Prior knowledge:
This is YqiA/YcfP family alpha/beta fold hydrolase. GO terms for molecular function: hydrolase activity. There is one protein chain. This protein is of the alpha/beta class. The chain has a single domain, classed as Alpha/Beta hydrolase fold, catalytic domain (Rossmann fold, 3-Layer(aba) Sandwich). The protein is built from seven helices and eight strands; from the N terminus they run βαβαβαβαββαβαβα. Strands 2-1-3-4-7-8 form a six-stranded parallel sheet, sandwiched between helices. It has a two-stranded antiparallel ribbon with strand order 5-6. β1, α1 and β2 form a beta-alpha-beta unit. The mean pLDDT is 95.
Amino acid sequence: MILYLHGFASCGDSTKTRLLKAHFGEAEVLSPDLPVEPDEAMAFLRRLIGQHDVSLLIGSSLGGFYATALSSEYALDAVLINPSVHPFRTLAPYVGTNTFWCSGESFEWESDYLLQLARIAERMRLPDARLLVLLQTGDELLDYTVAEAVYGDYEVIVEAGGNHRFENLGEYLERIEVFYGDA
C-alpha cells in the first residue's frame, strides 16, 4: 500500500492523490488529511503505518519532510516531490491564520509548530531505505538546489521549469511504479 502525505495547507483529496489512485488503484493509495500540528501529524502517521501494510511513502513538500522522517524510522522506501528540507524556516512566514486550498476553511499555524518541526529535524537522519526525489527548478516556494544537495546520495530527478505543485506528476507515474515495483 502507498501512503501519500500532502503538503502544508493541502489535503488528502488533491490532484496528486487522484492521479495516484487512478494509476495504482483506489484501494492501493491511502491519502488522509493530516493534522495541522506537526507532532499530531507524526503520531497520526505512525498509527496509520502500524494499522496498514504500507510499503511506499509518497510525500509532497511538507509531506516530503514527514516522509523522510518516517522512511528513516520505519525503513520504508519513499518518493519525495519537491520536498521541504527545512520547513521550520520556510513555513515561518505562515504563522497565523491560513486557508486550506481544498476546502477554503481557515486554520491556525502556530509558532510552536515551527519548534516541533525543528525537533523532528534534529532527531531525523537520512534513511537507509531507497528514495526517489522529484524536483522542479521552477519551484517558486522552495529552492530545489537545497533538496538536491541534501538528497544527493539518492536517486534525484531534476526537471527544468515546473512549479511547487509539480503539476505534471502524471508524466512520472510509470517511473514511480517501477520504483515501487522494485521494492
